[in-house]
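Weekly structure sync, notes
Attendees: PL (lead), two postdocs, one rotation student
Agenda item 3: pending single-chain targets
PL asked that the sequence for the first pending target be pasted directly into the notes so everyone works from the same version. It is reproduced below exactly as submitted, 321 residues in total.
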Amino acid sequence: MSEPNYKVPVGISRCLLGDPVRYNGDHKHNRFCTGVLSDYFEFVSTCPEVEIGMSVPRKPIRLVQLDDQTRALATDDPHQDFTTALEQRGAEYADAHPRLCGFIATPNSPSCGTFGVKLYLPNGHPVNKTSGRFTASLRANNPLLPVEEAGRLNDAGLRENFIMRVFTYHRWLNLRADGLTAKGLVNFHSRHKYLLMAHNYKAYRELGRLVADLSGNDMDALGDQYISQLMQALSAPPERGTHCNVMQHLMGYLKQQIDQQDKQELLRSIEDYRGGVVPLIVPIALLKHHFQRNRQRHQYALQQFYLSPYPHQLGLRSHIH
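Predicted structure, written out during the meeting:
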């Protein structure tokens, strides 16, 4: 289950790629997506507003709370309701791309926005925040899919966590495509063990018990339960303290191989990370260095996706303090 040498399919709003498809005929080109992530992601672009027949340029739409429903209405004519078409497009997109491993959305968009789209009362007063109708439907039809907004990728922790989840989900889809077996699930869990521990210790224990005895179980149903709990556990970035706890656990594999000076250097680098003095990559790189000095002895540790959850060329942990 090594990392792929081909690109991972990830959905993205077309305007983020520089396509002039926004309501005003403009775009929201995101250079991190097209300049960095495009080396690793095979983008599957979409503009749901255009795809349901809206023109470019066009009158903007906004989300309006009507009774207990959120509706996507034209700003100049509330009788023009695009809700059903956008939600249907989200379901169609999810169904057409079952191998999608993530989605990057446009912030504040009433169709594609995810976390903070303004919701208005019919009188035009803002009342709350919600999700765009296309993205809400996409997530409802593929609840495991990692979804992030382009603007939030400027945050180092959110960026690293999203990309980690994309690659984790990609490994899972590959495992399922090959046919899920008890051996395959145990191996998958074993290699993600410390990554899971860093994010959610309770889920780490629960999933450990889940895979402890697989005899006589329906593997497909068990697999669905496993990945649902795993992706939920990985949904938020870990704290410094949990990272430090995991790295100290991994140090245990080295206790017979490194001398006191190396041990103190490693402990100091972990504590420097805990204090925000150095980025996460420093103690991680030092751990990998010691494991790689005796690769044959430390195959289990080196196979942990906690140490290499995605291609190291992305350099994401260099920005995690």
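Discussion points:
- The longest strand covers residues 8-13.
- The mean pLDDT is 95.
Action: rotation student to compare against the earlier draft before next sync.
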